Amino acid sequence: LAAINSFKVDARPTVVNRASLLATTSANVTGDPRADAVRQAFLHGWNGYVTYAFGHDELLPVSKEPSDSRNGWGATIFDALDTMLIMGLDDAYAKAMSHVEKVNFQVSNENSKTFETTIRYLGGLLAANDLRPDPILRKQALALVEHAIMPAFDTADGIPAAYVNVNTGKAVPGNSLDLAEFGSVQMEMTRLSQVTGVSKYMDIANEVVTRVQNIQAYPPGLYAIQWTDKPFKPDPSGIITISGGGDSYYEYLLKNYLLLGSTDDSLLSSWKTFVDSMETYLQQEDEFHSFTYLADMESGKLISQSGELVCFVPGNIIYGAKLLENKEYADFAKKLMDSCYQIWEGTETHIAPEAFNWIPKGASLDGYTEDQISQDKERGFYFSPREASYDLRPETVESLFYFYRITGDKSYQDKAWKIFQAIEKYCRTPVGYSSLINVDIANPGWSDFQESFLFAETFKYLFLIFSDTSTISLNEWVFNTEAHPFKLPSSLNIQI
């Protein structure tokens, strides 16, 4: 409660010096014209959304039609709020706020997905409020939580339901339990308690992680992504992965530890166990290039598959390595960072696929065709065409951001710039940015969807990589899994 009380709105308004926080319209403020290029890309996507889909969740940037995949409350607007403030886009922010204050979170044609609503909507509201305190943001954050998130916890065992019917205010029964979903609402609920001084939000969310921590796992600290509810435990036949379904649970162990003022040592201990087990049980080198990947595991056996979602891990590990001054962790993170970036370098478009495979070191080559082996020798991995799409994801850029901010090595800026150029070349449409169908052919094809996290994550991390390092310093801020920054209770010594 002491941590909460120190964050009460009236006692400690988070008023941030704009000179140190915001890189404004002039490229001279950032000192790097690449930041302004990213800012212009953000505006291109935003203006298309405003023209053809304002108030809806997403823009279909090829057909120029709106889409509502996140309850129709305007997910792109909420996800973009803090990025607009960071980029100094005050006119766009004012228009966005004109929508935010009118949204009724008690009405939707679809059930609210607890995890997505928390990280996108609540995360966006809280981050914007940390950057520019506003009673409208706090009022809407509380309305959202009470109507769309807290009802999810009204279950027999207190483990949040995957969906809530906001029209009735009731949890939807019978949904499967997903580790990353029930284990990735903690940062947002912690921050809401800190801002409001009401402890119930953080208490009910953090108790879920305590329940997970009390369950022994093998490998230690790694869990199957699917869980049963009676009893509450991981499915013994389930797959262990650091990709979708598991990813942000592990990410939040370290980050919520920091957001809580480094007061819950069990979170840090669990994070260290997670990293140690990844290094011991999941890392796997490829046959021809000795790149290091994180494999999935099923029934104790490794599956040589991974994807772009896993590429948040290098940034998360280097973050913790700096905090703990742990060279072994830093070396492990570097190997994973190099491998993630190499995936982008290895495709026809220089854009990473959603998922990929590799030939593991020492494996028999009898099961591989000559074409697969020759591709692997040339590119460093065997590409899986069944998941050759690109959904405008930010994970490799996110890790490059952490590596640049923590090491000061400008080669990470150069890599991020190459990624941005590839996105500009292949994803940009006349009115926005589209996901791609197949990144491993010269004409990858647009799949006609502009994810809201393009504005929350991909453009934000790219902009920050090229901005002055005092802009959203890792010493003062911590990001949720949707890249929404929350103000830390005390300063750290993380970045240069």
From TrEMBL:
Ca(2+) binds at T481. Keywords: Calcium, Disulfide bond, Glycoprotein, Glycosidase, Hydrolase, Metal-binding, Signal. GO terms for molecular function: calcium ion binding; mannosyl-oligosaccharide 1,2-alpha-mannosidase activity. It holds the Pfam family Glyco_hydro_47. InterPro entries: 6hp_glycosidase-like_sf, Glyco_hydro_47, Glycosyl_Hydrolase_47, Seven-hairpin_glycosidases. GO terms for biological process: carbohydrate metabolic process; ERAD pathway. Disulfide bonds join C311-C340. GO terms for cellular component: endoplasmic reticulum; membrane. It comes from the Eukaryota. Pathway: Protein modification; protein glycosylation. Its EC number is 3.2.1.-. The active site is at E116, D247, E354, E395. Belongs to the glycosyl hydrolase 47 family. This is alpha-1,2-Mannosidase. It comes from Umbelopsis vinacea.
